[in-house]
């Protein structure tokens, strides 16, 4: 049986880094952001071109133009989500099905908006990545092009960290440093791994 682990966390909490730690430990990870990048040069491109003319060049979505078309426009943003979310979910379903066939014991679905999109039903257990608020703010505001206004807008669309933690089976605090986070990842894997019994 393959255990599907949902990995989520608010912006700047260290989710991507934690996902890489699972990969380093040998657990396959489906990265939603990477799936979006692939889809922007594939199945999503013609759908986005039809809904947002001028945002696709040579079969690939121009992310800067698309951002201009949707930022600060809730209806346009929802329309984009209605195109992209089902395609990402389909991509993840294929990923899980392939690993079930192989008999992979644990896989991770990195889902940034797991709680926001009702993704709890897609996974067996949930890992929430967290960090102190000041650490989160510092990380996010150090990103190129990020402003207080953009940060506030992103947070407004996300379920609060405290609420996410209440819905978690496992919590990994990346504010305690990389080594502590790596140990926490290992502890999750060990807890979910089937016990190995020595055959007499």
From TrEMBL:
GO MF terms, alphabetically ordered: ATP binding; dephospho-CoA kinase activity
Principal EC category: transferase
Keywords annotated in UniProt: ATP-binding, Coenzyme A biosynthesis, Cytoplasm, Kinase, Nucleotide-binding, Transferase
Compartments reported by the entry: Cytoplasm
PROSITE patterns linked to this entry: DPCK (PS51219)
One GO cellular component, as annotated: cytoplasm
Catalytic reaction list: 3'-dephospho-CoA + ATP = ADP + CoA + H(+)
Listed InterPro entries: Depp_CoAkinase, P-loop_NTPase
Pathway(s) this gene product operates in, as recorded in its UniProt entry: Cofactor biosynthesis; coenzyme A biosynthesis; CoA from (R)-pantothenate: step 5/5
Residues the entry annotates as binding ATP: 12-17
Enzyme Commission code(s) on record: 2.7.1.24
Cross-referenced NCBIfam families: dephospho-CoA kinase
HAMAP family in the cross-refs: Dephospho_CoA_kinase
Chain's role: Catalyzes the phosphorylation of the 3'-hydroxyl group of dephosphocoenzyme A to form coenzyme A.
Family the UniProt entry places it in: Belongs to the CoaE family.
Protein name per UniProt: Dephospho-CoA kinase
